[in-house]
Design goal:
29% of the residues lie in helices and 33% in strands. The protein is an alpha+beta fold and 126 residues long. A hairpin with a 3-residue loop joins strand 1 and strand 2. Pfam families: YchJ_M-like (PF17775).
Length: 126
């Protein structure tokens, strides 16, 4: 059985798959970040929108998220730093032309009504 896309040693079905299916909510900002990365790999757009804080959802465009998820070949997730409410990470991928890319972000999260939500991120130029 293949390990989860997020880089854990667990199978997808026992790791991020549970969060994406809605059976087990993410228990920390880092785990939500990992599940969102896996959601990009799977193009699970509804999950990406649902785990974005309600105050930020109006600016989301479902077709753009889907296109971003599907046109890139996601290679691996690298967690640089994580604390209670923030995660710095690098998402390694190949764009549609096959060129290696790195999305480097410092993400902020909030915990409301028993669930974690992605709030926003600062993007790093590499």
């Amino acid at each position: 059985m293949k390990n989860c896309f997020c880089g854990s040693d667990e199978p997808f079905s026992r790791c991020c798959g549970q969060a994406i299916k809605g059976t087990v909510p993410s228990e920390s900002a880092e785990k939500l970040m990992r599940s969102r990365y896996s959601a990009y790999v799977m193009a699970a757009v509804d999950y990406l929108i649902a785990t974005t804080h309600v105050s930020r959802r109006a600016r989301l465009v479902q077709k753009e998220i889907e296109q971003w998820a599907k046109t890139n070949n996601w290679q691996r997730l690298e967690i640089i730093y994580a604390d209670t409410y923030s995660v710095e990470f690098k998402a390694h991928f190949r764009d549609r032309s096959g060129k290696k890319q790195i999305h480097h972000e410092k993400s902020a999260f909030v915990f409301e009504q028993g669930r974690w939500y992605y709030l926003d991120g600062e993007f790093e130029d590499l």
